[in-house]
Design goal:
The protein is α/β, with parallel strands linked by helices. Helices cover 32% and strands 15% of the residues. Strands 3-4-7-8-9-10-11 form a seven-stranded mixed beta sheet. Strands 1-2-6-5 form a four-stranded mixed beta sheet. Helix 5 links the parallel strand 8 (159-163) and strand 9. It starts with 30 loop residues before the first strand and ends in a 20-residue tail after the last strand.
């Protein structure tokens, strides 16, 4: 890893941080802390952010306009993580550095409070979890996401959280309190219930069945929580049986939306993911190398892959009405409902389909 303070250690603009001129003031870089105990194997780089609420450029393809990311890098170590290249902006690697050398914006909570008080801020929805997970292991040590939730709740600012971590349940009382003052929405990423696939591709995350249970608890507590079945990896987690199993489990847990998302591989991520896969299944790695000419599969292939999810939702929730809803992966959109079935007795639900 590059030694902090050397001219090679770069802290300048990253696209995912909304376009500010610099991420951190030069005089506020860096304090280095080596993890011990439960955090052994991790290294934390403490920085003081100049700005914490990031505004995404209007030309960006992402649906949300404002984000907060208190951490950079992620100990979940998902082999396909789209955020890996953001570590390169800092002069770090997208492999082990991304998983073990984590940037912690230690002044995140105070910056949120200051920026929410600004006359320029108009109370728009803020999305968390759009880059790296706000409830990754570092949150257990630093409690920044908890503090941010409290700050947003104090002024009644709406927000959403996308996570793979059951650590979110630690803050269930705070989320309930925030939901009493503003719109709060959560989403879990649960790509499969197949333990073999989970261990191979998301080694630092909680077991997917634990995540399903977290979806249940959040919804039972009045926090609308959906699921992104993401990513669906061709050849690993895309069989009809696998997709029907995870979809049914999420619906049974009360997920207010179920959105299938096929694997996409940005430059840099593609090379990392395929290299890792090559060591585990060289035949599949070769097949995906041929299929992924760009970052996405052709739309027809995507539609075929996600079809079992859509069929399962239609079968298990036939009375879902048309609705307009927002979530951090898809943004605001009209969701067509399947045709009602006379025998259905389930109450209306909010569902979303996407790819």
């Amino acid at each position: 890893m590059t030694v902090p303070g050397s001219k090679d250690f770069r802290w300048r603009l990253a696209d995912d941080d909304g376009g500010q001129a610099a991420l951190f003031a030069e005089e506020e870089l860096i304090h280095r802390h080596v993890g011990i105990g439960a955090y052994r194997g991790l290294e934390f780089l403490h920085v003081r952010a100049k700005q914490i609420i990031s505004t995404v450029p209007e030309a960006s393809r992402v649906p949300f306009r404002h984000t907060i990311n208190a951490y950079r890098g992620c100990s979940h170590a998902c082999t396909y993580c789209f955020a890996r290249p953001t570590h390169e902006y800092l002069g770090l690697g997208i492999g082990e550095d991304f998983e073990r050398t984590l940037v912690v914006k230690i002044n995140a909570v105070e910056r949120v409070r200051a920026e929410l008080r600004s006359a320029r801020w108009n109370g728009d929805v803020i999305a968390m979890g759009t880059n790296t997970d706000p409830y990754q292991r570092a949150e257990g040590k630093y409690h920044l996401t908890r503090g941010i939730i409290d700050a947003l709740a104090e002024v009644g600012n709406p927000f959403s959280i996308l996570t793979k971590s059951t650590l979110i349940l630690r803050d269930l009382d705070r989320l309930v309190a925030a939901a009493g003052r503003a719109e709060v929405r959560c989403n879990f990423s649960i790509g499969t219930l197949d333990a073999r696939v989970w261990k191979a591709t998301e080694p630092g995350t909680p077991h997917p069945r634990q995540r399903v249970e977290a979806v249940r608890r959040l919804n039972e507590s009045g926090i609308p929580t959906g699921v992104l079945i993401a990513p669906i990896i061709p050849g690993l987690s895309d069989s009809a049986e696998q997709l029907e199993e995870v979809t049914a489990a999420c619906l049974e847990a009360g997920a207010v939306s179920v959105t299938p998302v096929t694997l996409h591989l940005r430059p840099g991520v593609k090379e990392h993911f395929l290299a890792d896969l090559r060591g585990k299944d060289p035949t599949l790695a070769a097949a995906l190398t041929r299929r992924y000419r760009g970052a996405y599969l052709p739309k027809a292939e995507q539609a075929e892959i996600v079809a079992p999810v859509q069929r399962t939702v239609v079968r298990l929730r036939p009375q879902a009405p048309p609705t307009r809803q927002w979530h951090p992966a898809l943004g605001p959109r009209d969701i067509p409902a399947p045709s009602p079935q006379p025998s259905a007795t389930a109450p209306p639900e909010q569902l979303s389909f996407g790819s």
